[in-house]
Amino acid sequence: MKTIFTLLFSMAMFSTTFAQYGQNGQRDRGKDNDVYASNDNRGYDRHDKNYGGYVFTPRERDMQITQINREYDYKMQSVKNKPYMGWFQKKRLINNLEAQRDEEIAQVIRKFRSPKNMFGDFRGKDRKKW
Question: How many domains does the chain have?
Answer without folding.
Answer: 1
